[in-house]
Amino acid sequence: MTTSSNCWSCSSATSSAHFCPACGKIQPLPKGADYFAFFGLPQKLTLDLAALEQRFHSLSWKLHPDHFARASEDERQLSLDLSSQLNDAYRTLRDPVARVEYLLSLSGMRKEGQKKQQAPPELLEEVFELNESLDELREARASGGNAAQLAGMRARLESAQHRFESSLAEVDKELAGVSAEWDAALDSAADEAAKKKLMERMNEVLNRRSYIRNLVNGVRQELAGT
Ligand SMILES: [Zn+2]
Predict the structure, then answer these.
(1) Cα Rg of the chain, angstroms
(2) Distance in angstroms (rounded) separating the CA atoms of residues 10 and 168
(3) Residue 105: how many other CB atoms lie within 10 Å
(4) What residues have their beta carbon closer than 5 A to ion ligand 1?
(5) Which of 14, 37, 67, 132 has the most CB atoms within 10 Å of its CB?
(6) Rounded Cα–Cα distance for residues 210 and 23 (Å)
C-alpha cells in the first residue's frame, strides 16, 4: 500500500519513505501502512529473505534512537516507535507462516477453525491411534509399568511423531503452493473474488497446520515426560 504524504518539516513529498528525501527528517508511517509497506514491499508472500534481512539491518541502524539523541522530542519518539514497529514487522514477515497469518488478518480473513479440535479427515485414523497410545502410556506410567513395556510405547509414539512431522511438512508445502498462487494472482491483477477464494484456502491450510502442530507438540511433551 502506498499513500502519498508530505514531510512534516519541509512539506516535500516523501513517497512514503522513512526519511524525507529533501531534508532527511524522520517521517511517521503513512496512514494504513502495513508491515509490507514498512519494507517498501507489495503484499506478496514469496520474499527474498536475504534482502529482507539486509533491509531490516539497514533500517534498524538508520532508525536507531541513538541517532536522535540531539533531535526534538517528537523525532526521538518517532524513532522509538518506528524501531519497535520495524522489529514487529521483521519478526512477522521473515516467518512464512506468520506472514500468511498477517496477510489474512489485514483483511479480517484469518479465522480460527470453529471445530478446531477436530482432526483433518485424512488424519482421523492416525489421531485415533495416537490417542490410544497416549492413554496406554499414561496408564502404564500410573501403574508403574515395566521398563520394556514403556520402551515399546515410547517407540510407538516416536514413530507417530515422525508421521505427524511429515504431515506438517506436507502442509507447509501446501501453504507455499497457495502462497505462490496468491503472488501470481497479484501479478495478474486478479479480482477480489479470486483473491478472497485464495485467502479462504490459506485460512483452511493454517487451521490444519495448527491442528497438526498441536499434535506434534503434545506428543513431544508426553515423550519428554517418559
Ligand atoms: Zn523534509
Answers:
(1) 24
(2) 52
(3) 13
(4) 7, 9-10, 12, 20, 22-23
(5) 14
(6) 47
Question: Scanning the structure block, which residue is given the C-alpha cell 514403556?
Answer: 150
Dihedral of CA atoms 43, 46, 48, 53 in degrees, nearest 10, equals: 60
CA of 2 to the centre of ligand 1 (A): 18
- Between CA 13 and CA 16 the distance in angstroms is 8
What is the Å distance from ligand 1's center to 24 Cα? 6
The length of the chain in residues reads 226
Render pLDDT for 112-170 as a digit per residue (tens, 0 to 9).
776 556 778 888 888 888 888 888 888 888 888 788 888 888 898 899 899 999 999 99
Cell of 27: 517521517
Please give the model's pTM, rounded to 2 decimal places: 0.87
Q: State in Å: Cα 173 to ligand 1 middle.
A: 45
How far apart are the CA of 5 and the centre of ligand 1, in A? 11
CB within 8 A of 126, min separation 6: which ones?
160, 163, 164
Distances (CA, A) of 40 to 18, 24, 49, 150, 182: 10, 18, 14, 55, 18
Q: Which residue has the cell 524501531?
A: 83
Residue 120 DSSP code: P
